[in-house]
Amino acid sequence: MDFIVGLPRSRHGNDAIWVITDRLTKVAHFIPVKTTHTTQKLASLYLSRIVCLHGVPKTIISDRGTQFISRFWDHLQQALGTQLAFSTAYHPQTDGQTERVNQILEDMLRACVLTYGTSWEESLPYAEFAYNNSYQASLQMAPFEALYGRRCRTPLNWSETGDSRIFGPDMLKEVEENFKLIRDRLKTAQSRLKSYYDQKHRGVSFEPGEFVYLRVSPMRGLQRFKIKGKLAPRFIGPFCIVARRGTVAYMLDLPEELSNVHDVFHISQLRKCVSNPEKQVSHENIEVQPDLTYREHPIKILEESERRTRQKTIKFFRVQWINHTESEATWERDDFLRTEHPHLFEDQLKSRGRDFS
C-alpha cells in the first residue's frame, strides 16, 4: 500500500490516490481519496474495495505514514488477522513493487492531467483496467489472467489488433477511445522506465584476484564497521577477491580490523577498483566533537603564490588537509596559516630546508 499525493483537486474533491498491489498476481487497485481522510474512512474504503473482492490478506507492506501507524489501523488489522510490515529508509526495496506501480501510474496520470485537467479521476478506472490487463514479464501473462485464470473478455475488442468495430451506444465508443489513450500512455511509461533501468543496470562480474571497493553507506555500521552516520565514506578498500560464492556473491580478503564482519558480499555492494589498489580508503573513525563537527589541519604545503594590490602584497599557500587528497587542496592566506597552524611551517623547514618567511 502507498499513496500518490500532490494531484490537482478533482470535481469530487479528491487530491490523492491510494495504490494497493497484490504481490502474487500484481493486480493493482487505484482508489481516489483525500489527503484529509481519517483512518476510519480509509478503513471503510479498504473493507469495501479490497476485502470484499480479495478477502483478508495475510501481510500488508507499507511505509510508515501516519495512516498506517495509527492505533485504529493497527487494532483493525489485528482483529482481521493481518500482519503489518513497514519499509524503512535502509531497506526501500521492501516496498519496491508498489513504488514501481506508482511510477507507471504517475506517468499515465501526468499525461491524463494535462489532457483532462481536474477530471483525472474519471480516467482512473481506465488506467486501472489498462494496467491489470497489460502483459507482465515476471508473470508471463496479465495480472487479470493470473488472478482469475482466464483472459479478460470485453465487448470492446480491446485485446484484438486493428480498428475495432463497435455497434452500440456512444458511451461504449467513448470508453474505447479513452482506453486506447490510456493503453498507449501505459506503453510509453513502461518503455521510459525500462530505458531508465537499462541506463543504470551494470552487467558486471569479477574474478578472483581482482580488487574491489566495498560499499558501506547503506549499512548503519556503528557495530559492524565502526563508522558514524553521515560522515561515513561510501566505499572502503580496495580489497582482494578471494573466491566466488554463487552467481552474485564474492568472498573478500578483509583486514583484521573487520574480522567480525562476514566476508561474503553481494555484487551490488562492490565496485571495481580501476586505480592503484595499494591506495587504501581508510575506514577508521573520524574524531567527531559533541556538536557533530571535527577538526582538520593542513599537513603539507604544495604551492605558493602572491597577489599584489596597490598598497601591499598578500602571500597565499596551497595546502593539503588531513583526510583529503591533493586534488582537494585549497589556497589559504599566509597570516591565517601562521596564526592557526604554525607547526606547518616548522615541518616544512625541517623537511625541505626552505625559509617561507
UniProtKB/TrEMBL annotation:
Domain Integrase catalytic: 1-151
Superkingdom per UniProt: Eukaryota
Single GO molecular function: nucleic acid binding
One Pfam family cited in the UniProt record for this chain: SH3_Tf2-1
GO biological process: DNA integration
Protein name in the entry: Integrase catalytic domain-containing protein
Originating organism: Triticum urartu (Red wild einkorn)
